[in-house]
Structures are given as structure tokens and as C-alpha cells.
Amino acid sequence: MAEEKKWTVSQQELEQQAVFSEKVFAINQGFYQVHGRQRLAYVKSYGCQQNVSDGEKIKGILASMGYGFTEQKEQADLILYNTCAIRENAEDRVFGNVGALKHLKRRNPELLIGLCGCMMQQSHIAQRLKKSYPYVDLVFGTHVVHQLPENLYQTLTAHKRVFNIPDSDGVIVEDLPIRRDGSLKAWIPIMYGCNNFCTYCIVPYVRGRERSREPEKILKEVQTLIAQGYREITLLGQNVNSYGKGLQTPIDFAELLEKINALEGEFRIRFMTSHPKDATKKLIDTIARCEKVCNHIHLPVQSGSSHILKQMNRHYNREQYLELVNYAKQTIPNLSLTSDIIVGFPGETLQDFEDTISLIETVQYDSLFTFIYSKRVGTKAAEMEDPTTDEQKSERFQRLLAVQKEIGIERYQAYVGKTVRVLVEGAGKTGEDYMTGRTDNYIIVDFPADSSLLGQFVDVKITKALNWALLGEIVK
Ligand code: SAH
Ligand code: SF4
Ligand code: F3S
Fold it and tell me: Which of 143, 271, 297, 426 sits at 20 to 30 Å (Cα–Cα) from 291?
């Protein structure tokens, strides 16, 4: 049996879910007749775009069962938090928010409270919810989003708590209903899960094994979105550079990019995240050649010290990373690089940290996502000696921010006088008559314009650099 078959959910199971979906729909119709209004759901996704994308599917499934949506928790009949487990503060925030729902539930005992997403895949979290949060009605994991109709039916009818968190390598479910958050920019997962087991990271434990979608499915989804007026497609995966492994169709990420680039229409292609260990020269050449693919690579380095990179199980060292960056800079005109950095990984010495500073000074990133290391239960790094104090870590973190700020200002300043292409995305922050958008390499640009240009690509001449954006004027 081909490996890809392994991820498929049976037709029978999907049909079963369709039956439950109709049942919940009927219950919600009954509600409408009694109360004269639709049942409303409040759905909030935390974490990365993968979670946001799951959240869009959850909202799609809810909409097909007759739910409407609200941004006000007080108005909701169903509150669902789609959680992230990447760092401790992300988890603390969720517990805080769930705790705050207690009084809503007391006021409205009919309110359903649900939790899903990455945090739920950890057994200690599920245990804690079971024991200490009795007013949480529904908990489901990352591998059973498609079973939401059945779980919701159980919650609505049996009046008992439902915990559905199977341990699984994961599934690929195509053609789920989807309710996208935007009408110009869309997220498309091209793969799920992760096999890399970076020693600090929880994702491989909560998202299952790496698995790729069939290229035909992806291409069809992009085509549909372009026909609907979407102008920017972001391809998602924890490591898009290993796309295609295990598929019957021989294909890699560069070839997928090439195929999407060849589709008709005016649109941009972005992707995230690229793991440096799997970024090939072929990929970089492809980015340079494909005019729809943005000249921006988010290439998380995590640390500038080869010793720490080894401890992190990243499978590249400082020299290899810099060589890759050099090749990319030479090959892709106006390349913008961004990165993720972890400060204070267990055993990081001052010298290791200095190596990180010197690396970011060498590479000159447009921006950075910086994190202080957070211990995750069950990961390898959680067992490592960590003699550095929180205070030392926080000092290093502040220094990193300061160094990057300088670099960012200089990089932005260099745009003054240049003309950049921008997708007009919405109202600008600079003033009433301003619109805003992003350049190909992800920098925010504000410029005087009216909303009639929404969704169009315009050329903007940059007149001024702020520390968070560029200002400019449309050139006719
Ligand atoms: N798959 C992506 C990253 C996903 S998580 C990649 O490999 O680049 C996003 C970022 O969160 C990571 O790049 C890392 O910088 C950070 N991160 C992950 N685990 C962390 C932890 N335990 N503590 C602090 N930051 C962490
Ligand atoms: Fe986490 Fe590493 Fe996988 Fe990224 S590649 S999700 S950092 S284990
Ligand atoms: Fe968080 Fe899960 Fe993404 S842990 S970063 S939401 S894959």
C-alpha cells in the first residue's frame, strides 16, 4: 500500500460525519424556530498559520451546521478556543481565558465551551481540564477536526462532557467546508505534521508525522481561490522544503512552486516555513525564476552558534546557513530575509549568544521573531542542564532586540526613493485618506489612496521610512 493511503480517512467515516452534521443542523433549526435567531459561535485561534487555517475549517464546519458567528463572547452559544502549545505563555493565556468564562457559563448554563488545537494533544493538559475546569464541555485534538459534527451532536444531546483526543500519526482530510477570514489573502496547507524533532519543540508531538497533500488538490484549491478574487496565496507547512516525500507522484517543493506559478491570473505566492537544512539551490533558483513567488524567505536560524544548533538537532551549522544565505542573496534580486531566534536555549553561553548577534549582523534580516526559550514537557531539551538565569536570558533578549532594531531602521531607510509594488489590502493607519498594503518582501506601506483600489497591485514610490512601515505615493 502506498504511504499516502495511510493518511486517508475512509469514505464511510466522512459519510457518518455528514449524517451528524445534518442532525446538528436540524437541532439548530429547531433553536431558530423557538428563539427567532441563529445560534452563534465565537471561535478564536491562537498560534501559527496552521492553526488559523484549522480554525477556518472549524468555522466552515460550524457554518454548514447552521451556526452564525460573533466576535462577542457574551453573545455566543458556543465558545471555542483553538489553542497553541509552542511556549508556556501561550498556554497560560488559554488557561486564563478559559477561567474567565466561568461566570459566563453561570449566567447562561446553555453556553457550550470547547477547546481544541495543539495544547489538547498533551495528556497533562487534558487531565488538568478534566479535573479543574468542569464547565468545559468539549475537548478535541488536532487529528479529529473532521469529527466535529459527531462531537458537537454528543455535547448537545447527551449533556455530558466529550473528550476526543486520539493519539494518531495524523490524517489528511480533503474538501472540508471552509470559512476564510479574508477575501484577498488565503492560507493553503500543503502538508501537515513534522518529523524533525528539534529538541526544544512540541510541534512533532502535537501535530503528528509529516504528510503531504496531493499536488492536484493544492493546484485546484489555488485555481478556485484566484477565480474568487484572492490575490495572495500562502503555502503552509512546518517545513515546506520537504514537501512531496511519500507521495506517489514524484514532486518536490520547487516543482510545486513552479506549477502554481504557471497558473493564470495576477496573484502572489508566499510560503512558510523553510527549514534551512532542506533549502536547496534548486529551490532558490526557482524562487528567483518564478515571477509570482515573492522575493522573501522566512528562514529560521534559531541560533548563530554551531554548538547550540547541534544541541537543537537542527542539522545545519552556522557556516552552512551563511553559505545558503549568500547563495540566496546572489541569486534573488531584492531578497528579504526574516528569521526566528531562540534566546537562552539550555546551555547557551555568552559566547554562543555573541555568535547569534554576529550572525544577525552579517545576514541583515528585515525583521525577526524572537523568543526566550520555554521548556516543553516531553521534549529532549527539557532534560538538558540550564544554568543560565532568567535575568541573564532577559538581558540577552533585550540586547538582541536593540541590535535588530538598528538593522531594521537601516534596511527600511534604504527604501526611500525606490518604487515598490504593493497589494492594496485595507485602510492605512497613517491618516484617513490612506490605504495600506505589503511589498513583495512583506514590508507594510501606507500611501494616500481611496478604497476603490482595494485588491489591486499598485506601484508606490517610497518617501519616508518609519520604524514599523514605509510611507509613499502611488506613481501613475
Ligand atoms: N516549523 C517552523 C517553526 C514553528 S514554531 C520552523 O522549523 O522554523 C515557530 C518558532 O517558535 C520556532 O521557529 C522557534 O523559534 C519558536 N519556538 C519553538 N519552540 C520553542 C520553545 N520551546 N521555546 C521558545 N521558542 C520556541
Ligand atoms: Fe518544531 Fe523543528 Fe518541526 Fe519547526 S522543524 S515545527 S521547530 S520540530
Ligand atoms: Fe502552536 Fe501548534 Fe502552530 S503548537 S505554533 S499552533 S503547530
Answer: 426
